[in-house]
Batch of 4 targets.
Target 1
Amino acid sequence: MKTLWIGMAVSLASPLALAQTTIYKHVDESGRVTYTNKPMKGAIVLELEPLSTLPILGVPGALPERPAAKATERTAAKPAVAVVTPKPLPTIVASIDRDTQKGRDDVRRRILQDELTQEEKSFEKAKQALLEERRNPTLIAAVRVAQQATDPTPAQQAEMRANIDRASGRIRGLQATVAEHEKNIEALKKELGAIKP
């Protein structure tokens, strides 16, 4: 009996626990906004009102009812325990006619296609910026100095490494941006492929 009540308490509390997730908002260089439940560099935490859940009213058996206790000597000495088995909720299936669903799919396809086009443009732009950064004369000069050094001291090696790191610092960020755009393009193509023609 105790297990039944614990199970019911956990099942009622689990939607509330899921509703209390932290949400992060991130805006990238191109102005694209991303909402996620995973922390991201440069993202801010959104303060959201907690969600509340309400029982379904008017459905018999949706909530277990407590039986009224009779005031007798027997119940006062040892309270009676009633096992209440909740009745299953009726299944409600929403049906949408074919034309409405096709219209929704067409709108979704158009939105995804627009996002894909924008993502491909951003990808090409980031790739071009990465290519230009790799041709950075400061980086090339730092690499050449390191390659031409014969028997450098540890201090000279550390200085050359620091010069290369300074000159190539932006490359790592651009590589991450290119990889992110590639991942987004792949996900959008997968979404588009899943929509029925």
Target 2
Amino acid sequence: MRQFNQAVEKNGFTHKDAEILVRGKLAGTANAPVLEVSGTRIDTACLRDAHLDIVSLLGKTVTVSGVIPQAPKGKGL
């Protein structure tokens, strides 16, 4: 998320809560899942606590929706 927030600031936008819908490939491991989206790798720590069978989803294309909360300027999540 830090990478995302830095890109937002670099492009001159201000942080606000954002509803997201992301489609990508779930990679990594069950303990450290990573969502690969257009050449980026997003740590999906929030999925570790979800009631999902991560192992069965590894290597598959998934759609993730949620809210990225507003972060203070200069701070990453």
Target 3
Amino acid sequence: MPSIEASADSIDARLLLALSRDPRAAIVALAQKIGVARNTVQARLNRWGEDDVLLPFERRIDPAFLGYPLRAYVVTRVKQRLLDDISAELSQVPEVVEVHGLSGDADLLIQVVARDADDLYRIAGQILGVRGVQRTSTSLVMRQLVDYRLTQLILRDS
């Protein structure tokens, strides 16, 4: 997670909107589109890169294209004192695409992808077999009802 001290200003908002519409646009084209100097765009992009503002490109790849059409969330209870070891082990499971630490009844929310139901069963078993994992509950994503989105926030706050 980025540790951003300042929030986006109006130039950031215009640049983010332009990038969301055309992520492969050249710096000169972006500068023309939002009405600033090329160096301003370059400086913003450089700063965002240093501050981890922009998420990795791989978040835009559909796992189904890679042969993993099933997506599931594994809600997990763990021994807190083993959290670092558990995280390290989960990062070695290729089908684990994201892990969030939670407060409340569950400790981890693990997003996994699978080739089919048998593959998902294997992956869930692998997670349950991690030392320190006490209990899991797996829920299959049936369909995505709202796509990942931030444009509405950029527009609201700009």
Target 4
Amino acid sequence: MGHLEHQRPAQAQSRWKLPRFTGTLVLAVVMTAGVAMLLLVLAGVFKPKVPAEPSAAHQATVSDLPLAEVRLIRRPRYESAVGTVRAVHQAVVASRLLAKVVEVKVKAGQAVTRDEVLVRLDDSDLQARLKQAEAALAAARATQERTETDYQRAQRLIGSRAISQAEFDQAASAWRSATAELERAQQTVREAKVVLDYATIRAPITAIVIDKRVEAGDTVGPGQALLTLYDPTRMQMVVTVRESLAQRLTVGQKIPGRLEALKHDCEATVSEIVPEAQAASRSFTVKVTGPCPPGVYSGMFGRIFIPLEDEDVTVIPVAAVFKVGQLDMVDVVVDGTVRRRSVQLGRMLNQDYEVLAGLTAGEKIVVPKGRKEAH
């Protein structure tokens, strides 16, 4: 009896613990469900933004409403190819001498004219060589004049047999040798002047300096690039075109082009198609030219548009579209009433939108006056 009495309080305690745990769990579930319901209400899940059926406010008669027809138009289709603006004539000015740079008269971005002095090199040794060549020329000229006088005297004397034939031949040979030496000295002077002129580097074309690679005090060697110039009046766009599209192009063909940075559209002319495909990309290099607007620089980004087959496009006026939340909407006339409908839009084509889904050609839509475009 004592053992049974000892167990009864324990059994009674276990019966009270189970209901307490169950009540806490139920309370937690109820609170979680309440919070979730509150979040859904605040998110507007139970309040539709666009009613599935048009309300009476969106249904109206079509009398006196400005209407337009959903049109199906046929227009050219293009595929774009990107390219880079390059100068048709770009020159790299290099040194022909091993010399020290004395003066650099230009900087990047500066416009220069043909034969304008760009860089001066140290020419002290070249000046000395020129003076030596001129001195040798003077000596050769004096020798030639003396031997020419002797030869003319020998011609007079040989006629009267005052000198022998051997003496005459000797005078003639000396005159011819002196004449040849004079010619050599003259060419040496010309060469010295040409080499001296290499120390003054001039612009080969009227152009703009785009890169300056030396400063005063630098020592340059033969073939070393000093400056890069380009002619801004003759520009071209170098475009990489995949081989399937390159077959649609011919030299002299007119195609649309665009400079993105300047928002400039123009008609470009295909000037060159390089007859070799790039092995890595299977594409061809195409060069096009066109009118250059102010502000075009080498390296700018551009596009050309290669014509493909024509396409059929469904379009509606821009003014017919309005926004409801994030949706593009139009008012469509259906059975004599106006019903609101969501549409999926594509490109803007002048004053029209391309319609990808939601409308078919021939349907009537409302175009209110004074409405601003949706996008």
